Amino acid sequence: MDRWRPRGFILLYLAPAALVYLIFYIYPAADAFRISLYRWTGFAFANAEFIGLANFREVLRDEQLHLALSNNLKLLFGGGVVCFGLALFFAAALSHARIKGAGYFKTTIFGPYTISAVGVALLWSFIYNPSWGLLNVSLRAVGLDSLAKPVLALKNWAFPAVIFVIVWHVLGFYMMLLLAGVQSIPSDYYDAAQIDGASEVQTFFYITLPLLRDVLIIAILYWIIGALKHFGTAYAMTRGRPAGLTHTVSTYLYEWALPYYSSNYRLGYATAIAVALFVVVLAMSAMYLRVTSREAIQY
Amino acid sequence: MAAHTPARTHRVSVAPLGVLRALVQKIPRILTYALLLAWSSIGLFSLLWIIMTALKTNQELFANVWGLPSAPQWDNFARAWTRSKMGNYFINSVLAVGITVPVIAVIGSMAAYVLARCRFFASRAVLLFFVAGSSIPLQLITVPLFLFFNKIGLLNSLWGLMLVYIAIHMPFTVFVLTGFYGTLPVELEEAALMDGASFHAVFWNVAFPLASPGIATVSIFNALSVWNEYMLALMLLSDRSKFTVPLGLYNLKVVQDYAADWVGLLAGLVIVLIPSIGIFLLLQRRIVKGLTVGALKG
Fold first, then answer.
1. Which terminus of chain A has a lower count of CB atoms within 10 Å, N or C?
2. Chain A residues with CB-CB distance to B151 below 8 A
3. A214 lies in a domain?
4. Cβ under 8 Å to B: A residues 187-246
5. In the prediction, which pLDDT does A62 show?
6. Which residues from chain B sit within 8 angstroms of residue A253, using beta carbons?
7. According to the model, what pLDDT value does residue B4 have?
8. What global pTM score does this model have?
9. CATH architecture classification, B76-297
10. Distance of residue A43 Cα from the nearest chain B Cα, in angstroms
11. Is residue A35 part of a domain?
């Protein structure tokens, strides 16, 4: 089969996929670079004014954008630590022979991941509702009235609350990834550790974790990219409120592309932000892979 | 019975200490279960609470959050489906998924098969070309697509959106299916060829059917992705009647923020959640299996 090259067929069979892909994905992506060089306040091309790199200069100065980026970073590091801490713990626990009910836990922890970002955002908006939401009502029921705050309206609590929701949403996915990794570690290693009298904790840190390295590296890469690009849940939950404090880079970008309260379209600027985001994601991924590259562990 | 006694001649009764030690050794396990239960219960309780609350009236909601509804207000769901147009949104999303997922599977398979079997001079480059697309964030193409569709009149069109959905799922689909077709045994195809079958026949009658497990897995992910897609739909659809479920849900929230028909909104949310969860429970195993295949390949 390797040597068979029915030329006409090759083109014919590649064509549909390649064409759709080119026209509706690659071409727009390339066009984005061009659009970012314009000031574009309406829909028609006539409104476009070529301004070169001015949009990018503004990207570097825009404080709101920097605030949004800081939120993405909070999600990346703060959320990442919580997410991976829990995911690793759960993955180790659920692959342990002596923990019962693994199937139930896997289902209930992974389940939220199948709900759409908007659904999750809505669900948690209800839970966070100051007067009748599950959170505050529960707190009041156990007498912790002082802690029952309007979380999504408070300067210091709003975005952390959003981060928690995002982590809750995706934890199951990362847990499953790590679980698969743990389960692919041959039991010989664990047998040897047991013979040598290692404790659970020692086994985890000296055997499980190192052998999980490759899966962990990929999982963390997904997380980094996801945290930098995050849009859905943050947008549907708060859309930047209060006062733009819960914006991520992507939701902020949308405020210029699809403004709700004003008619200030700035399509060129929005695209410039997107281009900058793309570059940042690429750069971070490349750096990360550079730093973590090493020979794959053979076992 | 040992005649030789150990050096330690005096042994205090260690029964209580033994029990304590056994208990202490159990603590990590107790804590583990506690954490697992706590985390998994968040979702479970929230879901139950939402369902229960969706069956109340708005007054009951404010009066007693924990209480059960006095009479289940199925009417809330009817309202959400018709007046709040959840029904419409459902139909649009079902249409979107029902059309895009099979198309993706078919044209993705065609490309993947060629890339897996026919090692022509550019096959590696073409595969890379497809895969590279996965590094393109959707944010990058939203505005260009908006302007592009505006120019060619595909704006505010479910069909236009579907074309984009097909395009953006090519990287993942072609990548996975190329690998999958590569693992199919060549013998069957070679046998068919020797029997005089054309390339077309070999693909459609032999390879494509054989690939159904891989196609099924990929399609489940694609279906989930299209069903839940939000960003592009938000940008490219403006007519409420064309909204897909995520958009409709968000619109509902915004509208209800003014109307304060909370239970109606909750009912709308439940209508959306139940099928997602139901399908997930049905297809769990396959979803999880498909997920982890990619990760382990590295």
1. C
2. 45
3. yes
4. 200, 214-215, 218-219, 229, 231-232, 235-236
5. 92
6. 139
7. 53
8. 0.85
9. Orthogonal Bundle (1.10)
10. 7
11. no
Q: Which whole number is the average pLDDT over A206-229?
A: 89
Show me where the domains of chain B are located. 76-297
Question: Within a domain: residue A47?
Answer: no
Q: How many domains, in total, are found in chain A?
A: 1
With CB atoms and an 8 Å threshold, state whether B147 touches A180: no
Contact A32 B277 (CB under 8 A): no
Closest residue in B to A137 (Cα) is B65
From chain A, pick out residues whose CB is under 8 angstroms from the CB of B53. 126
User: Residue A260 belongs to a domain with what CATH number?
Assistant: 1.10.3720.10
CA angle, corner B55, sides to B49 and B60, nearest 5? 85
Shortest distance between the Cα of B48 and any Cα of chain A, in A, equals 11
pLDDT, mean of each 10-residue run, chain B (298 residues): 49 62 73 90 87 78 68 79 82 93 95 85 86 89 91 89 96 91 86 84 87 90 90 88 87 72 82 82 74 54
pLDDT in tens, A99-154: 778 888 988 998 898 888 999 998 998 889 888 888 888 888 888 877 788 888 88
Count CB-CB contacts under 10 A for residue A35.
23
Residue in this structure with the two tokens 């996929």, named with its chain if needed: A17
- Nearest-CA neighbor of A178 among A118, A279, A292, A89? A89
Instruction: Write the pLDDT tens digit of every residue in B170-199.
Output: 999 999 999 888 888 888 888 888 888 888
Categorize the per-residue pLDDT at A169 as very low, low, confident or very high, splitting at 50, 70 and 90: very high
Residues 6+ positions from A288 with CB-CB distance below 8 Å:
A220, A221, A224
Taking CB atoms and an 8 Å limit, are B107 and A281 in contact across chains? no
Q: Which ranges of B118-201 would DSSP assign to H, the alpha helix?
A: 123-132, 138-152, 158-168, 170-183, 186-194, 199-201
Residues of B in contact with A105 (CB under 8 A): 36, 40
| Yes or no, beta carbons of A181 and B36 under 8 Å apart | no
A159 is in which domain, residue-wise? 53-292
Specify whether the CB–CB gap between B133 and A26 falls below 8 A: yes
